[in-house]
Write a structure and sequence with these properties.
By secondary structure, this protein is of the alpha+beta class. The chain has one domain: Electron Transport, Fmn-binding Protein, Chain A (Pnp Oxidase, Chain A, Roll), CATH 2.30.110.10. It has 3 helices and 9 strands, in the order βαββββαββαββ. A hairpin with a 5-residue loop joins strand 8 and strand 9. The radius of gyration is 17 Å and the shape is globular. The N and C termini lie far apart (40 Å).
């Protein structure tokens, strides 16, 4: 008798790990989801996306943004990486959802200067605003991830699977 509730999640394999790691490496922009402190409602924003030298997700954001205020209030968040290709159904293109906890690294904090140099090597246009007083780096400690590798290719990944 067939299982009436088969899991759509496949066992994680090296192909899934490689695809997820590639999405993280190649992504320049991502969607960041937070909960607004005033209402508890979800809010999604596009952010610049990079990685630390240890491959952890990283961004540079302003204290003036709503998502910064939300992360200060509750550092739990979700990040979606992966863009649809130019052809075909956008839902068949791979994407990765990261569940994470945000940590701010402000100017003067230990490790800030090294992150600054690393970030600017990957995102040179940020030179225009990286030193503004209201900007800080945010490192995202990933707790788990969900990979949709295309139709029928769903995987649950750990930080170790992502090389973190």
């Amino acid at each position: 008798m067939p299982n009436p509730d088969p899991s759509p999640i496949r066992p994680t394999d090296d192909d899934a790990r490689h695809l997820a790691q590639g999405l993280i490496r190649q992504t320049k922009y991502a969607a960041l989801a937070v909960l607004m402190p005033e209402t508890g409602a979800p809010m999604v924003s596009r952010i610049a996306f990079a990685t630390t030298p240890d491959r952890e997700p990283l961004t540079l954001i302003s204290d003036l943004s709503a998502h910064t205020k939300a992360l200060v209030h509750d550092p739990q968040c979700s990040i979606l990486v992966g863009e649809p290709g130019e052809r075909g159904d956008p839902l068949t293109h791979p994407r990765l959802t990261l569940q994470a906890r945000a940590t701010f690294i402000r100017k003067g904090a230990r490790g800030h200067d090294a992150l600054r140099a690393h970030y600017l090597s990957a995102t040179p246009k940020a030179t225009l605003y990286v030193d503004f007083a209201d900007f800080a780096f945010v490192r995202f400690a990933v707790s788990e991830a969900y990979l949709n590798g295309g139709f029928g290719k769903a995987f649950h990944l750990t930080p170790t699977d992502l090389g973190l």
